[in-house]
Amino acid sequence: MDNTRSEVLRYAAFTDSGKGGNPAGVVLDARSLSETDMLAIAREVGYSETAFVLPTLEPSEFQVRYFSPKSEVAFCGHATVAAAVALAERDGPGARDFTTLAGLVTVNAVADERGVTATLTSPATRTRPVEESVLSATLAAIGWREEDLDPMYPPHVAFAGNDHLVLGVARLATLAGLDYDFDQLSALMEREQWTTVHMFWAEQDGVFHVRNAFPPGGVVEDPATGAAAAAFGGYLRSLGLVTIPARLTLLQGTHMGSPSRLIVDIDAHTDSVRVTGSASRMPL
Fold first, then answer.
1. Which of 7, 35, 44, 49 is catalytic?
2. How far apart are CA 281 and CA 284, in angstroms?
3. 77-119: per-residue pLDDT in tens?
4. pLDDT tens digits along 211-239
5. CATH homologous superfamily of domain 126-280?
6. What DSSP string describes 172-228?
7. Catalytic residue status for 49
8. Any idea which residues are catalytic in this one (predicted)?
9. Predicted model pTM
């Protein structure tokens, strides 16, 4: 392992007014690292994801791989934003193409007096209803009943690079009181190949309170989940649950003491969804 190339930068992504956010590790030049090296670094860092950037011959094109402490994942939104901001701070703002295991992700970084924000354009989204037996097993693991769900939002498995179970609840108190069986939900998610369970409450038009269970990443909950935000936007568009074009605000991480803000833009003429957030360097 080349330690001169494997320096890990630490960023909080999707911060809210400079606070909170979701920590991600970023290695800006991972060309000398093997998969074993990457996994070992991700475990040592201990965040839900670390992004490993592999520069190409084109200055605006990169291969990016994402590792949780447990395994490689195809795509991670908050680590993508962190990597884009890190590259912008080093090389200047602008658009960059990230080739990921989930496909091409374009990220545009913009700098102003408040810092750097990045907008990722997700892989194409899709969604499908969840099977009743799988939904029942999920609710048993979470400790919810079907009547806790908001009938306006059908339970679905939504995709934007990874699969996420999407569950809307009728009351904020239900979301606030989340206390699930980690082992039970983890086994179910491994079987179904879900990355997170995206649970939300609709406060008003365009504003949602969100929590994401993330056992596959080795953590109980994720404070900000860009990939799930993109999948959620695609879900709302596919089911006609939002007027297009739409801009959504997702408030996540509040119940963890790490408030995060994700901006989701949904258009009619593309299968992708744009997710915007800020990121700030964390002290060592």
1. 49
2. 9
3. 999 999 999 999 999 999 999 999 999 999 999 998 888 999 9
4. 999 998 888 999 999 999 999 999 999 99
5. Diaminopimelate Epimerase; Chain A, domain 1 (3.10.310.10)
6. HHHHHT----HHHHHHHHHHHT-SEEEEEEEEETTEEEEEEE-GGGTSSEES--HHH
7. yes
8. 49
9. 0.94
